[in-house]
Design goal:
- The protein has one domain.
- α1 crosses α2, α2 crosses α3 and α2 crosses α5.
- The protein has a three-stranded parallel sheet.
- About 50% of the residues lie in helices and about 10% in strands.
- By secondary structure, the protein is mainly alpha-helical.
């Protein structure tokens, strides 16, 4: 699980620095899902990660799905983003997609139950963004925009 790895990395980095320093998390899309997983694990193991949980000053989510009733379309968008950034083909059978969707919905519910104390900002795009011609355009892949 990526959430475990991020938690360990954050905890280790904070052990080598000032533990009382506030922590502000900024994450985008799939990174927000990983952060939710990380913070849920930290909260469940408060005896070990309490200093990290208490240092959380705020969270900024950019394009991260939050709905507890997350549908397979949301998971498909996350997979498209992963494919675009990892440049790998990822195929998931329908049964697995349903299972992953249920896990995403469960994570959203867990996160909402434990993280009510940290100020949170969630930003989403309301309409498609046009990409101008540039040298970077050849390195970009457009992923479907929301309604």
């Amino acid at each position: 699980m990526l959430g475990d790895e991020l938690l360990t990395a954050l905890f280790d980095a904070r052990c080598s620095e000032n533990k009382s320093r506030p922590l502000l998390c900024v994450c985008h899309s799939l990174g927000g899902i990983i952060l939710k997983q990380t913070l849920c694990i930290a909260n469940e193991q408060h005896y070990r990660y309490g200093s990290l949980v208490n240092a959380l000053a705020g969270i900024i989510f950019l394009g991260t799905p939050h709905a507890a009733d997350t549908d397979s379309e949301t998971l498909s968008r996350c997979l498209n983003i992963f494919k675009a950034t990892a440049k790998k083909s990822v195929e998931i059978p329908d049964q697995r997609l349903l299972h992953e969707t249920a896990m995403l919905a469960h994570l959203a519910t867990r996160f909402e139950a434990v993280y009510t104390h940290a100020p949170t900002l969630s930003v989403i795009e309301g309409k498609a963004t046009r990409v101008r011609e540039s040298r970077m355009k050849s390195r970009m892949q457009m992923v479907g925009a929301g309604p």
